[in-house]
TrEMBL record:
Species name: Cytobacillus solani
Family of this protein: Belongs to the catalase family. HPII subfamily.
Listed name of the protein: Catalase
Record's keyword annotation contains Oxidoreductase: yes
Gene Ontology cellular-component terms listed: cytosol
Function: Decomposes hydrogen peroxide into water and oxygen; serves to protect cells from the toxic effects of hydrogen peroxide.
Swiss-Prot/TrEMBL keywords: Heme, Hydrogen peroxide, Iron, Metal-binding, Oxidoreductase, Peroxidase
E.C. no: 1.11.1.6
């Protein structure tokens, strides 16, 4: 099944790498492609130059409108394998047949910035998965945070207008540290929970491979007996959930704006295939109102201690795209692309998305036939009475294109539910037409408090620093004061420290919600820590001991660690060992750990920068120094946590430190 989508896409591949005649799009071979057809060598170009006009017209139109949100993204192919049948909960074929492998395409993205923005900005990350099932495409369109800023889709344009670059000067790009965003947050307290996630380390992930994914909304699973369970979807990364630190994220934005794209691409090329396990939180329909929050509220999560996550399968990404535009850029996702056994809830944000996703594809991809673009086509046959339209690529045979008909025996014909036809869950609805918000959606602060309580002390400090930075960038004292007033409902000490840092008064009345409730699953301090596929910089200062260097390199490779050898200039020690980067072409912020090998007493300035930056960012630092006093005048404490003296200890201790990742008590 995994190869079914790959084989389907192959028929659309036009391999230009071999020897081919240059032709027009109509297949006409051309004798010349460097000069337009003119009336004389210095004369005007002739209107009859069809080749020039075709070539230029295509160029003029080869950029499609970028997504309004999630414009900057990267995608990859892979497959999903179910662990055990979920037939007790759903009749979806790909979730009930463990012997079946389902091909997938995943697109990761940022939300606010344009296609030209940086990868490592503070932002929500999109995590959209297209399952090419035998019953049709199923799209799980989520984020790396389990909640959202608003409760009702009618406010989505307002939120996006507020977070986007301000319209009078188109600043800032790819960032939320500006007045209109924080004005919106302060005026819409339902955003309180999400903004706590947004100011946490979750907003600056180390890698897409080390990032959780969430379906955000409450959906329904329906089994063959018609029984329903409410469900939330989770993607749990096998490598654990890890993030950058803010100073590091800002520096990477300048050193390598494509940091996350490159990380994903290179991991797949090397065979370090990213993996996530699919988890489900399930609530029987009869327990819909059994919690102290409304399960349909998209600004609320279901604490894992109350509703455990059931791990049901694994997704592996094992193939990069052949062409970024044709696949990643033209991929069209929609939460309304479902299969039998998966249905919707009345979450008012989800309900609005079910309209807007199709509507936006009509603009981006030129018309109603975007489903015929190869990356969007299902692997199963599709037949209906929809015809014509922009970019129609199917040649439909037959006299009829309507239902019902007698001329074609009423084909294509609807399929009863018992034979696989999709049927919506028959939920009883009884209510008046009304614009409003349910009283059960009015608790804005309890889960914001839960999230902050659940964080480790270093994570809480990062939240305080993030609020101080973002609000410190605002120009309006009113906006700053209103934002601090919002924090005053969540945590008084948080509000106090931020107010002090940005120079606005703390509200006199303490409105902090009183709760010491925690959810350990919300803290990244409790995540999985592995050395696998992390990047190590081996920085040389002087001439190394080549046999020892070779031994260490082999040890790192055996642990599935990537390494780069860095020196003043590119050189080779032997056939298998060479300097790959220079001090000028790379930077310490691009690595997860650093090993410095020095044969001299004087540490060169670029090498010292590697050492001090690595130490500053709490990363593992290994030192093999010929002179034990070479760093006496530096800011690095050799006895500090996560500093490994390889003169006294084996490199395996350094590898354990790499697995740990950061040493926050440094």
């Amino acid at each position: 099944m995994e190869n079914k989508k790959t084989e389907q896409l192959k028929q659309y591949i036009n391999d230009n790498q071999g020897k081919h005649a240059l032709t027009t799009n109509q297949g006409l071979k051309m004798a010349q492609d460097e000069f337009s057809l003119k009336a004389g060598l210095r004369g005007p170009t002739l209107m009859e130059d069809f080749h020039f006009r075709e070539k230029m017209t295509h160029f003029d139109h080869e950029r499609i409108p970028e997504r309004i949100v999630h414009a900057r993204g990267v995608g990859a192919h892979g497959f999903f394998q179910l662990y055990e049948s979920l037939e007790a909960y759903t009749k979806a074929d790909f979730l009930t047949n463990p012997s079946k492998t389902t091909p997938v395409f995943v697109r990761f993205s940022t939300v606010q910035g344009s296609r030209g923005s940086n990868d490592t900005v503070r932002d929500v990350r999109g995590f959209a998965t297209k399952f090419y099932t035998d019953e049709g495409n199923y799209d799980l369109v989520g984020n790396n945070m389990p909640v959202f800023f608003i409760q009702d889709a009618i406010k989505f344009p307002d939120f996006v207008h507020a977070v986007k670059p301000e319209p009078h000067n188109e600043i800032p790009q790819g960032a939320s540290a500006h007045d209109t965003f924080w004005d919106f947050i302060a005026q819409n307290p339902e955003s309180a929970h999400m903004v706590m996630w947004h100011m946490s380390d979750r907003a600056i992930p180390r890698s897409y491979r080390m990032m959780e994914g969430f379906g955000v909304h409450t959906f329904r699973l329906i089994n063959d007996e018609g029984q329903a369970h409410f469900v939330k979807f989770h993607w749990k990364p096998v490598l654990g959930v890890h993030s950058l630190v803010w100073d590091e994220a800002q520096k990477i934005a300048g050193k390598n704006p494509d940091f996350h794209r490159q990380d994903l691409y290179e991991a797949i090329e090397k065979g370090d295939y990213p993996e996530w396990e699919l988890g489900l939180q399930l609530i029987p329909e009869e327990k819909e109102h059994a919690f102290d929050f409304d399960i349909l509220d998209p600004t609320k999560l279901w604490p894992e201690e109350e509703v455990p996550v059931k791990i049901v399968g694994k997704m592996t990404l094992n193939r990069n795209v052949d062409n970024f535009f044709a696949e990643t850029e033209q991929a069209a996702f929609h939460p309304g692309h479902v299969v039998p056994g998966i249905d919707f809830s009345n979450d008012p944000l989800l309900q609005g998305r079910l309209f807007s996703y199709t509507d936006t594809q009509l603009s981006r991809l030129g018309g109603p036939n975007f489903h015929q673009i190869p990356i969007n086509q299902p692997v199963c046959p599709f037949h209906n009475n929809q015809r014509e339209g922009m970019h129609q690529m199917t040649i439909h045979r037959g006299q009829t294109s309507y239902h019902r008909n007698s001329l074609n025996d009423n084909q294509p014909a609807p399929v009863p539910a018992e034979h696989g036809g999709y049927e919506h869950y028959q939920e009883k609805i009884d209510g008046q037409k009304i614009r409003g918000r349910s009283d059960s959606f009015l608790d804005f602060y309890s889960q914001a408090k839960l999230f902050f309580n659940s964080l480790a002390s270093f994570e809480q400090q990062h939240v305080k620093d993030a609020f101080s930075f973002e609000l410190g960038k605002c120009k309006s004292d009113m906006v700053k004061a209103n934002a601090v007033a919002l924090l005053n409902h969540i945590d008084r000490q948080l509000a106090q420290e931020v107010a002090d840092n940005i120079g606005v008064p703390l509200p006199k009345e303490n409105l902090e919600i009183q709760s010491d409730k925690k959810s350990p699953a919300l803290s990244m301090a409790n995540t999985i820590c592995k050395p696998d596929s992390k990047n190590v910089a081996i920085v040389l200062n002087g001439k190394p001991n080549v046999p020892l260097l070779s031994e260490w390199v082999q040890t790192l490779a055996n642990q599935r660690l990537n390494y780069s050898i860095i020196d003043k200039k590119i050189s080779r020690f032997d056939d298998s060992l060479k300097v790959t980067d220079t001090y000028d072409t790379t930077d310490p912020c691009l690595f997860d750990a650093v090993l410095v090998i020095s044969s001299e007493s004087l540490i060169q300035t670029p090498v010292l920068e590697f050492i001090e930056t690595t130490f500053k960012h709490y990363k593992p630092l290994a030192l093999a120094l010929s002179d034990p006093h070479a760093l006496d005048s530096s800011r690095v404490k050799l006895e500090g946590a996560g500093v490994f003296n390889l003169s006294d200890s084996a490199i395996e201790s350094f590898i354990k430190g790499i697995a740990q990742g950061r040493f926050w008590d440094r």
